[in-house]
Amino acid sequence: MSLAKILRSSVWLYSSSLVNNLFGFAYWFIISAIGGPEILGVTSSIIGLAGLISGFLSFGIGVGLVRFVGKSIGDGDEAGVSAYFWSALLFFLLVYLSTGLTLIVLSFLGFSFSNFSSSMLRLAGIMVLLAFVNIFNSFLMASLRTDLIFKSNLVGNLLKLATGVGLVLLGWGWVGAVIGYMAIQLTNLVILGFESFKRVGLKIIFKISNLKNLFKAGIVSWFPGIVALAGQWLGVLFVFGSSGAYETGLYYVAFSIANVVFMSGTSLSSMLLPVLSGMEDGRKRTTWRVIRVGLSLTWPLAVFIGTYPWFPLSLLGESYLEASPVLELLMLNLVAILLSSSISNLSYAYGLYRYVLLIGLAQNIPRVFLYYILVSCMGMLGAALSFTVGAFLGVIVALFVASRIGFHIRIGEIATIAAVPPLLAFLVLLLSIHFVAGGLIIYFFSILLFLKLNILQWKDLSDIAESLLPGKLQLIKKIAGSRLLVKIKKHINYTID
Fold this sequence. Notes:
Layout: H1 3-35, H2 37-58, H3 61-75, H4 78-108, H5 118-129, H6 134-142, H7 146-169, H8 173-181, H9 183-200, H10 208-243, H11 245-270, H12 272-277, H13 283-307, H14 310-314, H15 324-331, H16 334-349, H17 353-378, H18 380-404, H19 411-430, H20 435-452, H21 458-468, H22 473-480, H23 482-496
Helix pairs in contact: 1-2, 1-7, 1-11, 1-21, 2-5, 2-8, 2-10, 3-4, 3-6, 3-10, 4-5, 4-10, 6-9, 7-8, 7-9, 10-11, 10-17, 11-13, 11-15, 11-16, 11-18, 13-15, 13-16, 13-19, 13-20, 15-18, 16-17, 16-18, 17-18, 19-20
């Protein structure tokens, strides 16, 4: 499978993440602005509770489905594709429907605990019940139909914004905000569910052996995933509990912006899993190319945002500028996160699940532990620092794993990629260049230097262009003319010399 196809799927996956992050921030910001901190606090608590329960009950089945459906597609085994899909779906229906209905019944019986009222528990139960739709997302990701995931997320987020904001304005309070949040689940049920069933058909094929394979493949990512999920929500809720809604909003905004940048690199790495699982040879070469290309294209962007954190934050309002130190700190995580993600996916493709587990635990357990210590004394900066410590501990373990599986990391190239954009940023700040021109210098001069040093290659850019402009690249080449393209390349190389 060509890198261009992987890149095309990665673009859709990244676009989907971008939509979720941007609409997610807009949703929380508007809800907070019109409803106040109480609505924001209650809504986030319900979503956090439902998310923790849903994540705990997933047992990593979705991750296992990505691997085995990708492998079945690579082997041309259509029966295997259907069997793995139906086995996973039936398990999810059993677990999530029974748990969600239990919470709903308990809520009608007046059950409540801690600060959760019975009505809050009822809405959390509905969200848990609908969590089975996540299986459609995993299946279409394995099929590299991330374009459908993007379209569904776009429609779902538009409905979420219209429904949630509209209901809050009508006086529904946190109930309206939670109902709006459910719009994405319902949209995925309709759109992704329809496309998934169209792919596999309605003939039910359930195999215990397939479900065991999914458990075995997913359980190694499940436990660290639960720890990460707990860390994410506990971090947000701990900031909310210790510092209030205002600082929680600042941290959420900074983390959302950082996630957009992280996903621009890790979406390409994430698409490796179904592809690598279906490959017999060349896994390490493909992984290294993804690391090299991903870092070359996204690290300069991270450095730009880290250099001018006030720019994206000021677009949301002057009050968000207080989150600049948090955003600066989070941007430092990109290199570590992309390396860890790629090495973890490579280990997963080889079936070395203990290494995947080891990397996940190294990242997430320290985060959860440090949240309790640092957030109480440092607020949102403590949450960002906890996240960063976990990322760097994770990459240390990932590099150890790479050496164990014979995956050679070219430290010199990684160091060069990591050093070039910060040096350009230092020069831009030293010369007091306007941030727009400075951003262009940081990004495009980094790319040109990577091309000159042969870290990034013209074929990489060609594959990316093909992924972004499928079917149109050849026409562009004909219009430009091959000789002209060669002259442009020579001119760039000559200019850098």
